[in-house]
Design a protein that fits this description.
By secondary structure, the protein is of the alpha/beta class. The chain folds into 2 domains: 182 residues, P-loop containing nucleotide triphosphate hydrolases (Rossmann fold), CATH 3.40.50.300; 76 residues, no CATH class. Helices cover 39% and strands 23% of the residues. The strands form 2 sheets. Strands 6-7-8-3-9-10 form a 6-stranded mixed sheet, with helices on both faces. A 4-stranded antiparallel sheet has the order 2-1-4-5, with helices on one face. The chain is globular and about 60 Å long. It starts with a strand and ends in an 8-residue tail after the last helix.
């Protein structure tokens, strides 16, 4: 088994009296595709926000390439090679596709303020090298050359998701975190995105950690699946192991016991103290 490139150790996160995550621990092996699944409200996006540094857990640590990054801010984690997309598209809608993608590489640029203002010498060379990489590697790979000069606001939803993926790739990630990459897509768009993810993993050597509700896609492309429910890991393993786990079946389909459901939700029945 490969060494873990990303490891979570007993992550707990709460907002007031609500526990979003409780003692969440798992590892993402280098070169793998790992999926985090679970019913709505299970804590999947909160987990992504804790890993990428947008939320600060009350307990636990996040290790990236063997280093504790729990105290690092999001830009510092990104600079180390931890890139992500968002459940709700977070692009600059008034800017072109090309400019949005180039922004993904900002943390690796060495040009200072004075160089940028003059735009000569090192600044120009760096800009041209970045554009060359974006246009001839990332844009070609994702098949979006025909829209590179269009404003993001004019694009269909599926293409916007592709542009957001391109921006994350411009950061040169070693671990790519995808938050619901095929949500809202039609069948053809889903198939394209699944192909891109597999190629990034197998040909580019990028480790993928994704949150996804499309269980067909999860089962088809994932090496490992982690299941969250009510902020806790209830199962993890291969796709076949997880889909037959009684706790996973119960989480998705319910036990049929109303008292059990009330207990898990912390809701008292009428007349109870």
């Amino acid at each position: 088994m490969a060494e873990p490139v990303l490891e979570l150790q007993r992550i707990s996160l709460s907002f007031g009296g609500v526990n979003a995550l409780t003692d969440v621990s798992f590892a993402v092996e280098a070169g793998s595709v790992t999926a985090v699944v679970g019913p709505n409200g299970a804590g999947k996006t909160s987990l992504f926000n804790a890993i990428s540094g947008f939320y600060k857990p009350q307990h636990g640590t996040v290790h990236f390439k063997g280093e504790d990054i729990s105290k690092l801010h999001p830009p510092q984690r990104a600079e180390l090679g931890l890139a992500r997309t968002f459940q709700n598209i977070a692009l600059f809608r008034g800017m072109t596709v090309l400019d949005n993608i180039k922004l993904g590489a900002h943390c690796h640029l060495k040009t200072g303020l004075l160089d940028a203002l003059v735009y000569f010498g090192r600044a120009k060379r760096e800009e041209m090298a970045l554009r060359e990489e974006v246009e001839h590697r990332i844009i070609d790979f994702l098949e979006i050359d025909h829209i590179r000069q269009l404003p993001v606001a004019s694009l269909a939803y599926g293409l916007q998701k592709r542009v957001e993926l391109a921006r994350a790739l411009a950061l040169h990630p070693s671990v790519l975190m995808l938050d619901e990459p095929v949500a809202g897509m039609n069948r053809e768009e889903k198939e394209d995105m699944a192909r891109f993810i597999l190629d990034l993993n197998q040909e580019w050597g990028i480790t993928v950690l994704m949150v996804e509700h499309d269980m067909g896609m999860v089962m088809d492309i994932s090496d490992k699946v982690v299941v969250l429910n009510f902020g806790q890991v209830i199962a993890q393993g291969s796709a076949n192991q997880v889909k037959n786990d009684p706790e996973v079946i119960k989480a998705y389909l319910g036990s049929g016991n109303v008292k059990d459901m009330r207990k898990r939700l912390g809701v008292a029945a009428v007349g109870e103290a």
